[in-house]
Amino acid sequence: MGTEGWAVSVPRGYRVGDWQVGRPIATGSWASVYEGRREGEDTARSALKFLATGTVTRRQLRHLQDMAQREIRLHRSLQHPRLIRLRETLVVDDAENPELDGACVLVMDQAERSLADLIRKGTPVPGAQRLIAEICEGLAHMHAAGWVHGDLKPNNVLMMADGSVRLADFGLTTEIDGTHGYLPPAGSADHVPPERWGEPLSERGYAVWTSADIWALGVTACQLLTGHLPFDAPTARARYVAATEYAEGERPLTLPASLPEAWRSWVSDCLAPNPRSRPGAGRQLYRARMLAGEVEAPPRRTHWRTAGATLMAFLVLGAVSGAGTVAPSLADPFGRWLRTGSDIPPEYRALIVEAGTRCDEPGLSPALIAGMLKTESDFDPNLSDVAKDEYGIARWTPSVLRYYLPPEHQDVVPTPPLSPEVSIPAVGRYLCVRLPLLAGVPGDPGLLGAAAFRSSDDVIREAMGVPARFRAYVERVRTHRAAYEP
């Protein structure tokens, strides 16, 4: 394979550190990857990622330095079986070769190929369901530790010799500062969510949330399962326009006909037009494992003991982090969100955390969700108040609940009894939709959302706060929320 036109052309046999450059593997716009062999060791191989320096402008050089630093910071902070491992970093010292002198070289584990190499138009990738679940493992770990990948796509998911996959290419990763991070104006048009370019460009870049990775996850999953992108058009620009029109409600989501029926809901949830409605990576990991047959689906109309325990295990996997991060204990994987030893039924803690972390709206928290459920029903999943047409653990009215279910279930009014696995996530969806509408109303945002749940956001806005008739309810939510906060 020739390297003419590559971002960084490195001759075979070139030495950097203890490594000798071997065959070329792949190239991008700013970096090129080669096989590396440690001198004197025939079996020690790695991937050498060279970042260009000699042929770029000062502005481009700053951009490359920023990308390299992002990647290095991520590797120093996180280690996980689903993230490619960085062995060492090197700087080329070769004044006689200005094209390479000063180049940053990342020495990483060598993969067999990227998932992009396996995708053929119209053909599912063998083992796609397992691969999707493994991608979710890496993504859940990153998100739980406070990082956004920023450039998730098949090219950046590597398959190792044992057939497992690892996330790679962390040049656009960003650490979350508060609720979001910042990315430079870059990314694959087919995998960048439509809302990205609607964000104002600041000195730090575009604001980005973990929901951007979830959109890219949905696109990637669709490619692996069908060999097609979810938006069908001849060019990347046309596909991006189609995605934008869908996000603005101007066209429906038409997924490939070959997408397995069981996965349609999974993919469409990732591609929810409202970023705040997209599920978390931990939740999608559990669902992917269930669809792949690796986890037994919970029986309908029963407590979520089995499902909750399994989801706990996966969330622990996603939350255990590297140096400098805080992870929940194995005894209580939800201790960072909900007080250990409280009266929240253990079988509902996973669902409550999922609902309370569904979006980044101020006031939303798992403790708020738990406080609302305690106030509404005392965690009774079998509540039935026929006179008020309210049912289940969250006292949903079925005709209202309908609009806070996943899109594929909104065409039919649900029939009681309403299970916790339906009712609790819907509370999170409700608050993610309604809390932004209460911006500007004075008061505690979470408690305003709870009052809106009991009445409506119109009532709260008209009163510019909690009306007198709902204050006792809100005080109970406040008390319970305080009892459940860690």
Automatic annotation (TrEMBL):
InterPro entries in the cross-refs: Kinase-like_dom_sf (IPR011009), Lysozyme-like_dom_sf (IPR023346), NEK_Ser/Thr_kinase (IPR050660), Prot_kinase_dom (IPR000719)
Record bears the keyword Signal: no
Domain (Protein kinase): residue spans on this chain: 19-290
Keyword annotations from UniProtKB, A to Z: ATP-binding, Kinase, Nucleotide-binding, Transferase
Record Pfam families: Pkinase
Keyword Nucleotide-binding: yes
Name used for this protein in its record: Protein kinase domain-containing protein
